[in-house]
TrEMBL record:
Subunit structure and binding partners: Forms a membrane-associated complex with FtsE.
Alphabetized UniProt keyword annotations: Cell cycle, Cell division, Cell membrane, Membrane, Transmembrane, Transmembrane helix
Protein name (record): Cell division protein FtsX
Organism encoding this protein: Streptomyces echinatus
InterPro entries in the record: ABC3_permease_C (IPR003838), FtsX (IPR004513), FtsX_actino (IPR047929), FtsX_ECD (IPR040690)
Subcellular localization(s) per the UniProt record: Cell membrane
Transmembrane annotation, as ranges: 21-41, 180-200, 221-249, 280-299
Start and end residues of each FtsX extracellular domain: 56-160
Length: 305
């Protein structure tokens, strides 16, 4: 009987405040969709870091005869065979180095033509203008500075470049976008909480006569509060369900189908469905707990029981 009463009161409360309930559902759905999206973005950045940092190289570019004329780092002339052998021998002795591959001027020219063959500059370049280089795979990508310190300024070395630095700029941008999404999510969450509190207050005020009678006949505080808390929880749960649908649909149409980014951007290792599915229970739990707690504390202040 008590359960039936609580359920009937939930239905009455939701119908009485239909407009505000709808606003609560929409705001909860948007805030939790952003919350889930931010979690997935964080996972995506971590996945990309693990994928790309494992592939980055440190490149040591060697001086050629053109650099000797135009680059202060190559003022002593183009790299000699003895210098190349010594650089390679020193690299292989370093404990941070996993492996070393060399790229000749002809190979560098070929790779440049493959990547930038349509560039106007490509037609004016010749193989002897390209730089020989050593591509170093480090055991720990964070140890780039060890290579830079050892080889920057050495005779025959034009520059030492770390591909990780380029990736760091990309990941900083992605993290900044993720923090922006979290900021929007926080504002939406505050709006949702305020709407929940106002909805509970209006509902409690509209039923003050019923709650007064229940108090006079000895109903417990929890029994009086339960319908209001349940109303907020139901509205939040609907919003959480919509947020889950938005995440699933978004993942399906942007990565798998529709935009089909998984096939168009093959260089990006996108997070899988397992990452999405593990976020859904958290979103649903939050969608129930957040409105319930907001309603509970609102009732303690505005409904004297």
């Amino acid at each position: 009987m008590r359960a039936q009463f609580v359920l009937s009161e939930i239905g009455v409360g939701l119908r009485r405040n239909l407009t505000m309930t709808f606003a609560v559902i929409v705001s909860v759905a948007l805030s939790l969709a952003l919350f889930g999206g931010s979690l997935l973005m964080s996972d995506q950045v971590s996945t990309m870091k693990g994928y790309w940092y494992d592939k980055v190289n440190v490149s040591i570019f060697l001086c050629n005869k053109h650099d000797a004329e135009n680059d202060v780092h190559c003022a002593k002339g183009a790299v000699t065979e003895d210098q190349k052998k010594q650089i390679l021998a020193d690299l292989k002795k370093m404990p941070v180095v996993e492996n070393v591959t060399s790229e000749s001027q002809d190979e560098a020219y070929k790779h440049y033509k493959e990547q930038f063959g349509n560039s106007p500059l490509a037609g004016s370049l010749t193989p002897d203008q390209m730089q020989e280089s050593y591509r170093i795979k480090l055991k720990d990508p964070q140890k780039y500075q060890v290579i830079a310190t050892a080889f920057n300024g050495r005779d025959g070395v034009q520059s030492v470049q770390d591909q990780k630095g380029i990736l760091d700029n990309l990941f900083q941008l992605l993290n900044l976008m993720n923090r922006g999404a979290l900021g929007v999510m926080a504002m939406m969450l505050i709006v949702a909480l305020l709407l929940i509190v106002n909805t509970v207050r209006v509902s409690a005020f509209s039923r003050r006569r019923e709650t007064g009678i229940m108090r006079l006949v000895g109903a417990s505080g929890f029994y009086i509060q339960a319908p209001f808390i349940a109303e907020a929880a139901v509205a939040g749960l609907i919003g959480g369900g919509l947020a889950c649908v938005a995440l699933v649909v978004g993942r399906y149409f942007t990565i798998d189908h529709g935009m089909d980014l998984s096939h168009k951007l093959t260089l990006i290792n996108f997070v899988g469905w397992d990452a999405v599915l593990t976020k859904l229970p958290l979103i649903l739990a939050t969608s129930v707990l957040m409105p319930s707690l907001a309603a509970f504390f609102a009732l303690r202040k505005y409904l004297k029981v």
